[in-house]
Design a protein that fits this description.
about 250 residues; alpha/beta; six-stranded parallel beta sheet; three-stranded antiparallel beta sheet; binds nicotinamide-adenine-dinucleotide; binds zinc ion
C-alpha cells in the first residue's frame, strides 16, 4: 500500500464510521516542541522521567519533583497546539459517538478545542491535595517559588501535580470510559504512541480484535502499527491535516 492509498483508506474508514476513538501519546506534541520521554531531550538534570514521576521520588524529595514539574509546565506553556491537535479537535464534531483518550498531560488537546476527552494520565494544568484530594490550578510556573511545595487552601495538606505516576492505579472511571469507547468503536485512530505504555496500547489492540478499523500515525513501526489496518508513516502534524483534507473531499 503506498502513502496515497493509505491516506484514502484511512479517510474512507473515518467517513463511514459513527463511533470513533482517538488515542494519543507524546508523539503528537513533538512538533509543538515537547520532547517525548524516550526520545532525545528526555532527561532533566540527569534524571530520567521514571526517576522523577513516581510516588517514591516525591516522598524522598518533593521539592525536586515540584521543580521538574514547574520546568515542564513552563515549557508546555510556551508551546502551542499543532495541526495534528487541531484536526483531532475538528474530528469530534463529525461523530455522534466520539472519545479522545490521551496519555499526554500537556493540556494541548483542550487548548486546541477538544472537549470529548479523557486525560488518562492527568494534566499539568492542575494540582491535587494529597490529603483531601482537592483540585486546584497549577501554580504559575515562572513565579518565584517562595514555597517550593504548595499547600492546600482547605486543609493545608501537601499538594502534588495532578498526574498519574509510574506505579499508581488509574483513577476510578477513567480507564472504564476509554474501555467502553474501545469496545464500541468502529474506527480507532492512534497517534504518536510507542505502545510501550499499557493499558492505552491494549485499548487499541482490543478494539481491533473486536472488529474496529485501526489506523496508526507514527514515523516509526510499533506493535500498534504492526496490527493496524493502515499505518500512516510520518509526523502527525503533517499527516493529520492531509487526512482531514481527504475526509472533507468525501463529504
Ligand atoms: P513515547 O515517548 O513512548 O512514544 C512517543 C511515540 O511518538 C514514539 O513511538 C515515536 O515514534 C512517536 N513520534 C515521534 N515523533 C512523532 C511525530 N512527529 N508524530 C507522531 N508520532 C511521533 O510516548 P508515549 O507512548 O506517549 O508514552 C510516554 C508516557 O509519557 C506517556 O504516559 C505520556 O503520558 C508521558 N509523556 C507525556 C508528554 C506530554 O504530555 N506531551 C511528554 C512526554 C511523556
Ligand atoms: Zn486538602
Amino acid at each position: 500500500m503506498d502513502d496515497q492509498e493509505a491516506l484514502s483508506r484511512a479517510a474512507e474508514a473515518l467517513f463511514r464510521a459513527e463511533r470513533c476513538l482517538v488515542l494519543t501519546g507524546a508523539g503528537i506534541s513533538l512538533e509543538s516542541g515537547i520532547p517525548t520521554f524516550r526520545g532525545p531531550g528526555g532527561l532533566w538534570e540527569g534524571f530520567r522521567a521514571e526517576e522523577l514521576a513516581t510516588p517514591e521520588a516525591f516522598a524522598a524529595n518533593p521539592a525536586r519533583v515540584w521543580r521538574w514539574y514547574r520546568w515542564r509546565a513552563a515549557q508546555y506553556g510556551d508551546c502551542a497546539p499543532n495541526g495534528g491537535h487541531e484536526v483531532i479537535a475538528k474530528l469530534e464534531d463529525r461523530f455522534p459517538d466520539f472519545l479522545l483518550a490521551t496519555q499526554n498531560v500537556d493540556g494541548l488537546h483542550p487548548r486546541a478545542g477538544s472537549r470529548r476527552l479523557v486525560e488518562l494520565h492527568g494534566t499539568i494544568t492542575q494540582m491535587r491535595c494529597e490529603i483531601c484530594g482537592a483540585l486546584e490550578p497549577f501554580p504559575d510556573p515562572v513565579a518565584p517559588d517562595e514555597d517550593p511545595i504548595p499547600r492546600c487552601d482547605g486543609c493545608h495538606g501537601r499538594m502534588r501535580p495532578h498526574i498519574l505516576w509510574f506505579g499508581e492505579q488509574y483513577w476510578p472511571g477513567v480507564l472504564e470510559r476509554a474501555m467502553g469507547a474501545a469496545r464500541d468503536a468502529e474506527v480507532v485512530l492512534v497517534v504518536g504512541t510507542s505502545g510501550q505504555v499499557w493499558p492505552p496500547a491494549m485499548l487499541a489492540l482490543q478494539a481491533k480484535r473486536l472488529g474496529a478499523f485501526l489506523i496508526d500515525v507514527n514515523p516509526d513501526a510499533t506493535e500498534i502499527s504492526a496490527a493496524a489496518d493502515v499505518h500512516l508513516r510520518g509526523p502527525s502534524g503533517e499527516l493529520l491535516p492531509l487526512l482531514w483534507e481527504r475526509l472533507l473531499a468525501l463529504g
